[in-house]
Prior knowledge:
The complex is a heterodimer.
Chain A: H1 2-49, E1 52-53, E2 64-65, H2 69-75, H3 78-109, H4 116-123, H5 125-128, H6 131-142, H7 148-155, H8 168-193, H9 197-205, H10 210-238, H11 242-247, H12 259-268, H13 273-315
Antiparallel strand pairs in A: 1-2
Helix pairs in contact in A: 2-13, 3-8, 3-10, 8-10, 9-10, 10-13, 12-13
Chain B: E1 4-13, E2 16-26, E3 31-35, H1 42-50, E4 57-62, E5 65-66, E6 77-80, H2 92-102, H3 107-121, H4 136-149, E7 154-158, H5 166-182, E8 186-191, H6 194-200, E9 203-208, E10 211-216, H7 218-223, H8 228-233, E11 240-249, E12 252-257, E13 260-263, H9 266-275, E14 279-284, E15 289-291, E16 300-310, E17 314-321, E18 324-331, E19 341-346, E20 352-355
Parallel strand pairs in B: 3-8, 3-9, 6-7, 7-8
Antiparallel strand pairs in B: 1-2, 1-4, 4-5, 9-10, 11-12, 11-14, 12-13, 14-20, 15-19, 16-17, 16-19, 17-18
The structure holds adenosine-5'-diphosphate and magnesium ion.
Amino acid sequence: xxxxxxxxxxxxxxxxxxxxxxxxxxxxxxxxxxxxxxxxxxxxxxxxxxxxxxxxxxxxxxxxxxxxxxxxxxxxxxxxxxxxxxxxxxxxxxxxxxxxxxxxxxxxxxxxxxxxxxxxxxxxxxxxxxxxxxxxxxxxxxxxxxxxxxxxxxxxxxxxxxxxxxxxxxxxxxxxxxxxxxxxxxxxxxxxxxxxxxxxxxxxxxxxxxxxxxxxxxxxxxxxxxxxxxxxxxxxxxxxxxxxxxxxxxxxxxxxxxxxxxxxxxxxxxxxxxxxxxxxxxxxxxxxxxxxxxxxxxxxxxxxxxxxxxxxxxxx
Amino acid sequence: xxxxxxxxxxxxxxxxxxxxxxxxxxxxxxxxxxxxxxxxxxxxxxxxxxxxxxxxxxxxxxxxxxxxxxxxxxxxxxxxxxxxxxxxxxxxxxxxxxxxxxxxxxxxxxxxxxxxxxxxxxxxxxxxxxxxxxxxxxxxxxxxxxxxxxxxxxxxxxxxxxxxxxxxxxxxxxxxxxxxxxxxxxxxxxxxxxxxxxxxxxxxxxxxxxxxxxxxxxxxxxxxxxxxxxxxxxxxxxxxxxxxxxxxxxxxxxxxxxxxxxxxxxxxxxxxxxxxxxxxxxxxxxxxxxxxxxxxxxxxxxxxxxxxxxxxxxxxxxxxxxxxxxxxxxxxxxxxxxxxxxxxxxxxxxxxxxxxxxxxxx
Lengths: 316, 362
Ligand SMILES: Nc1ncnc2c1ncn2[C@@H]1O[C@H](COP(=O)(O)OP(=O)(O)O)[C@@H](O)[C@H]1O
Ligand SMILES: [Mg+2]
């Protein structure tokens, strides 16, 4: 009798235990399916396609498998190399300038003066404007005859500048700086305001001038945040498309043809899907490298902090 | 070494005035302790001297020169902060030498100075550690060493020991007392701990509610407190206060309250006569109440023991005297049971009297 009761109770209990164990996976399942469809499948498709000589009129199955030929061709294609170089120059120049200006502004505006919060809000407006609108705005301002800049230069008696012609890359960089400096400004300001106040007071008493406080205390203490911010911005700058598309469409010549633009042209204009996929993979590799280095940097910081804590505890 | 003079120092945050005209003169080589309960304005006073807070009104003079418009770096002072305020990204040696490096002193001189002060505070083995890898007491020493390395003439401390555990605090207090004798500087030390104040100070300044209550040597303040606040703040266990009236009994002056009548002698009797008012507060320190079996009734208090706290050789007894609480100390070996009635002799020369209205000492 007793055994019967227990065996009776056992089955439902086992079932409920199974449900308990399985339920997390059941909840995760939809996310896994969506991630697979939205991320893994297209990515695999792109990698798979990059090994084929693939024309948009073919299905991927019909395209001929050519191994690494697309990658090798690209590496010998001066146009691709030029585009890669434009992208690198664009990204590094933009991010360097944005870091300097953004951090500089944050250092300047990190004080409690009346009206400062209004000023801060105004500074971050550019970041909130849609990139296409930014492109259109700047295209108008850069216009050779009726644009704001050239009219202004004319008014004060200076020669006009061929903004989107000879100086296209510089002009594009200026527009990007205008749009993305606020991002760095906000993060730098947040980092500044969370610095230990008393350490700064100690520095004042130790005789540090405002510059020395910035150089010896503020910047070093902000550095972890600044490095992550710079990496985030770099990742973004490598993928920029809209503003440049609207401003110059990559021209004149190849002077502003960043990789994202070249990929889209290779696919649509030159009808080389395989090559475009290979190019995307090169870009992906650069971005992966940056992302991994960002995570590695964070991890390193954690390890360092943990080691320091350990030493302190050993002593105590 | 310099003389510091605060002249009518006022601090306002917006419309709230937190310091109401502080007048204070600190002589050469003096160890001055600002002491008072939390929120009384000690840190604000110190930070104004340091130049970290602006002066709303009044002036600070160092060696006769007004300095309230000067930056901290131009006032030639060193400061130890409550939370130590070490530079987290620099190791101990770099923390200690920061001020010297800013002054562009020669490398060899800086290294020698770092070694010297590190030895002084016992940090030699930790010079290349970051503050994060130090214990609380070691961080405290780094903060001290950093201030010492600067060789400034004024040394400011803002509750430097309050983040340490009790044992370490006692040890550091003793080391500080030693150091203050060796180092010839004008030191200003802020604390809420009256024991630190009593043991370290050449001169104590008791603050309360943004006012200076009294200043003087520890002995002066302990023996002749100017008002009830100072009397209750200094000394452990704190002074007992009993409401009382003055009565003439056959030519003798008595203070009479519920449950007691104590005869006043000499100076105290004269003071009471010239004061005029009859309602007073009687103050007696626990250490001036001696357990006695043969005391005369007019020189003693009769107390009912309510609570006994054993703290070692002495026990602290909470007693009742006509509805008012009185704390006394008693040798722990004395046989005694709770609820018992004991007689304590009052040392008549050590009795304090305060006006009940103004709470000022007579
Ligand atoms: N930045 C501030 N703004 C407004 N009130 C302040 C500020 N700093 C201190 N106070 C007030 O001033 C008084 C004195 O503070 P403080 O000098 O820090 O006291 P403590 O004696 O504990 O060191 C306190 O009542 C505190 O609330
Ligand atoms: Mg304080």
